[in-house]
Amino acid sequence: MIEHILTVKVTEAVKALYQHDADLSQIQLQNTRKEFDGDITLVVFPFTKISRKSPEATATEIGEYLSLNLAEVESFNVIKGFLNIVVRKEYWLSFLSNNYLVEKFGFQDSRKKQPVVVEYSSPNTNKPLHLGHIRNNLLGFSLSRILQAAGHEVVKVNLVNDRGIHICKSMLAWQKWGNGETPESSGLKGDHLVGKYYVVFDKYFKEEVANLVAEGMNAEEASKKAPLILEAQQILQKWEAGDEDVISLWKKMNGWVYEGFAITYQTLGIEFDKTYYESKTYLLGKELVEKGVQQGVYIRRDDGSVWVDLNAEGLDEKLLLRSDGTSVYMTQDLGTAQQRYDEYNPEQLIYVVGNEQEYHFNVLKAVLKHLGCSWAESIYHLSYGMVELPAGKMKSREGTVVDADDLMQEMFDTSEAMARELGKIETFDNDEAHNLYRTIGLGALKYFILKVDPKKNMMFNPAESVDFNGNTGPFIQYTYARIKSVLRKAEDAGFEIMLSESKDTGFMPQEKELLKKLHDFPIIVSQAAGMHSPAVIANYAFELASEYNRFYHELTILKEENISSRGLRLSLSQFTSKVISNSLWLLGIEVPERM
User: Fold this and answer.
1) 583 with 537: CB under 8 angstroms?
2) What percentage of the chain reaches a pLDDT higher than 70?
3) pLDDT one-digit tens code per residue, 308-342
4) Which of 58, 87, 116 is the last residue of a domain?
5) 222 near 205, Cβ under 8 Å?
6) Are 133 and 404 within 8 A, CB to CB?
7) How many CA atoms lie within 13 A of 542 on its CB side?
8) Would 299 be classed as within a structural domain?
9) Is the distance from CB of 62 to CB of 16 less than 8 angstroms?
10) Range of 26's domain?
11) In the chain, what percentage of residues exceed pLDDT 90?
12) Is the pLDDT of residue 489 over 70?
């Protein structure tokens, strides 16, 4: 790639001109702004201390050196401290010729021995997946593909929070008010059924708390002494003690939830290499806590609870084990982290978890360090912001959070309405039309969420996301379908999609700009991996689609009579279709062959 070639040659130029070894961090290359002549710009300000000359003089000297010593440089110009370099046509033609038929252009082969473990989803088994889980799953799955494309071995894992007080609440409510209801008898997905009884528990629990408060108890004490919460805590204690009846009910209701989750994951297009269960990892966590007590790094108090003092790290004291011997979230996270380290010896442990858990992961790293786990530094929390819907756009079954299944169905219905309105399904049979609605609907949902920087809160608007104009998934999908239509028509007309070997082959500005945008893709993949941000890929895909549409509208392709120019434009179209497809694959988005 020309950036690598220039980096090597600029280093050589600095050494030759100023007898100084340039630091690679000083070499800043960027695309030349469109209002200036050039393809790539070198920022020369970092070298002025070395050259002891003005930015303009330094840029001119480096530019002259590159022109004399690098065949790929055609010319240069200097704007203040910026060296704008024009790359020869021959480089661009060679790049296009070598890459426009490469299926996985921009992707690197795996070159790392240690894998990256990415945890995402991490649902509780007391309710169905919701809108927040959708952002979590899309980020984790997309990041996994991006890291893989950047040359990493990746292990995609899910941690199911299948134990604890939350599921005990659903179990207790089902025992009291379920009357033996099952997914089969109710017609509900298993996760929705269990979630229904979590809501039932909450309803009666609040009534009990209100009654206790009315009798003179303060609200905090009432929430701890309400009969329902005491019963739920007893179930949790029986579960950890291995009570057969409690375990049997727990397995049955969790089984319903897993079947429901599997349907949601399949619809969303999400998968995992391995699933961990808190019901198993918490045991290893308890062993680690006991180990910490024996080593004197954790403290057992008089009531039997275990704590760690993290004040020296700027945190506070953290509970690791309750006085009744039951574990907390930190207990199982210790066990899970240790198990993954033992299994994979990973380069990095990435947790895709909402930003409200930033403190939790700071504590996790500190607690592990107290145990002497130097690998705790490999833990990385990919923190993401909240995602909300415009008020009144959708309501969940309980009127509180939006279920993932409901939202996806809303997307399918919205994409169907939009497609019918625009007349995009007139030649489709029922199966084709149904598949198109799902492809567009999921593409709209995934793109709209992933185009936003993960750290930012966002508002998701279903109708806006399905717009075929603007920065949306359907716009990019439609651009891909448009290119495939051009290529099919070219094939039907007997036109060859190939480059001419003629030295007279030139570039129109639209052709060169499109090719430069395609040339950026490997760098974009690397940047997205380094920043842990699918948004980098998403916004590049939109820019590429926009650049192709400008090329498409301003130049003739199939009606171009010059065979060399037509071949060039068809090659650029073929190349663009592959890069759009690869970009959207990194986001977990499918591309339709026609729309």
Assistant:
1) yes
2) 97
3) 999 999 999 999 999 988 888 899 999 999 999 99
4) 87
5) no
6) yes
7) 20
8) no
9) no
10) 2-87
11) 84
12) yes
Pairing type for strands 73-79 and 82-87 reads: antiparallel
| Burial annotation 342-381 (CB, 10 A radius, 16+ → b, else e) | eebebebbbbbbbbebeeebbbbbbbbbbbebebbebbbb
Greater confidence, 479 or 400? 479
CATH number of the domain bearing residue 579: 1.10.730.10
| Low-confidence winner among 272-281, 493-502, 544-553 (lowest mean pLDDT) | 493-502
C-alpha distances in angstroms, 498 versus 99, 176, 570, 571? 12, 72, 7, 6
Terminal C-alpha separation, the chain? 35
* SS3 category, 34: coil
What's the length of the chain? 595
Q: Identify the pLDDT of residue 146.
A: 98
Which residues have a Cβ under 8 Å from the Cβ of 228 and sit 6 or more positions away? 169, 172, 201, 204, 205, 208
Mean pLDDT of 17-37: 91
In one letter, which amino acid is 242? G
With beta carbons less than 8 A apart as the criterion, state whether 90 and 502 touch: no
Order of strands across the sheet with 348-354?
Answer: 274-277, 154-160, 116-119, 348-354, 379-384
Lowest-confidence pick of 99-113, 209-223, 491-505:
491-505
The answer to whether 402 touches 389, Cβ cutoff 8 Å, is: yes
Give pLDDT, residue 49: 92
Which helix (H) or strand (E) covers residue 212, if one does? helix 190-214
Q: Total domain count for the chain?
A: 2
Q: What contacts 293, CB < 8 A, 6 or more positions away?
A: 299, 300, 306
Those residues whose C-beta lies under 8 Å from the C-beta of residue 8, and which sit 6 or more positions away, are: none
Last residue of a domain, one of 87, 119, 148: 87
CA distance 218 to 214: 9
- Could you read off the pLDDT of 516-553 as tens digits, one per residue? 999 999 999 999 999 999 999 999 999 999 999 999 99
The yes-or-no verdict on residue 302 having pLDDT over 60 is yes
Say which amino acid occupies 30.
Q
Q: What angle do CA 202, 203, 207 make, to 5 degrees?
A: 110
Residue for token pair 């240069």: 76
Query: What is d(CA 491, CA 485) in angstroms, rounded to the nearest whole number?
Result: 10
Q: Is residue 368 part of a domain?
A: no
